[in-house]
Write a structure and sequence with these properties.
seven-stranded mixed sheet, binds pyridoxal-5'-phosphate
Amino acid sequence: MQIAERLTKIPPYLFMELRKKIAKAKADGIDVISLAIGDPVEPTPVGVIDELCKTAYDPENHRYPTDEEKGMLAFREEVARWYEQRYGVKLDPANEVLGLIGSKEGCHHFILARVNPGEIVLMTDPGYPAYRASILMGGGEPYSMPIMPENGYLPIFEDIPKDVVKKATAMFLNYPNNPTGACANKDFFRKAVDFAKKNDIAICYDNPYSEVVFEGQERLSILSVDGAKEVAVELNSLSKPYNMTGWRIGMALGNPDLVAGISKVKENTDSGIFNAVQFAGIHALRSETSNIENMLKIYKARRDLVLGTLKKIGIDFNPPKGTFYLWVPTPKGMNSIDFTGRLFEKTAVVVAAGTAYGKYGEGFIRISLTVPDARLKEAMARIEREFA
Ligand SMILES: Cc1ncc(COP(=O)(O)O)c(C=O)c1O
C-alpha cells in the first residue's frame, strides 16, 4: 500500500530506532542500560491515581468529555490558577486555556491551526524532533535556526535571512530546552515577542520542562512578558512535573485566536481528554507540588553523579540549568555517532547522539536522568571502568 507523501519526508522517529537497537541487544542477552529516553521512571503520585479511580466510577465521566472543545472548565480554571501561582501569569480560562492530550499534540495542532502549505516555520537546531515532523505533516517548510553554546543555545533572530523571515508565519521555541538543557530569560522573551510582532510570526512556546530547573534558575513562562499574548501560545504538560507521561494531559495557553484555532482542530480530530484524567490532573496541579520538589532533588543528585563521572573521564563542562537531560560534549576527535557507538560497544550504555536533534547537535550526546538510581550508578561505574 502506498503511504502518503507527507509521511515519506519524515525521518524515522528517533526513539523507534533506539528501541529497536536496545531490543536487539537485549535479545542477545546483553544487560543494556538506556540513558537515551526522557520518561520519568518514578510513579505518578498516589493521590492522582486515587482521584482517577474515584472519578472513573462516575458514569457522568464515561461520556464524551463535557465542554469538549476546550476541555473541562474546572480543569482550565485550575490551570489558570497554577499559571498565576507558578509564573505570575493571568489567564482567562474561558478563552485563553485549552486542555491537550500532552504538549506534543499541541505542537502538531498548532501547525494545523496556523500554517498554510508552503509557509516557513522556524525551529531550533538542535531541537525536539517532533517539531519538524509536525511542520512537514502540516505542509509547512521547516527552517532551522542554529543554537550554539557560545550564545547560551538561544537563536539569533538577526541571522535569519530576510526572505526566510518574510515567508515565515510560525516559530517553535522551547526553554528549558530539549536537548541542550538551556534556559531562556525575560530579555530573550522580549526579543522573541518583538521579532514575532514585527514579522507577523506566531510563536509556539513549548514549555513542558518549565518546572525542571536547578541551581536558582527561575521558573518562567513567555506569557509573563508584555505583549506575549498577542503573538504566542504556550504549551505545557503534566507529563514531567507529575510523572504523568502516560496519562496524556497538557494545556495550551495564551493568544485566544491560536487557542481557538487549536481547539477547532481538536474538535474535528479528538473529543478531548477523558474527564477522569482531567479530574486527576486538577488534583495534581492543586495538591502535588511536593512531587516536583522531590523529583528535583532526585534529578539533582543524578546530575551530580553523572557530572562527576564525566569529569573523571576528562569531560569537564558547566551544564545549563534546565531539564533532566545533560547535553555533553564528545571527547576531542570523536563525533556524536562514534562516541555513542563506542559507549554502547564497551559498556552497553545507550545515549542519544546529538545529531538525532539536528546537524548542529554534532559534537554532543544527550544523557537522560530518568533512570532508576541503581541503574544510573551501574552505568556510571561501567563508564568509569572503561574510560577513566
Ligand atoms: C520539548 C518537548 N516537547 C514536548 C514533549 C512531549 O510532552 P507531552 O508528554 O506533554 O506530550 C517532550 C517530551 O519529551 C519534549 O521534550
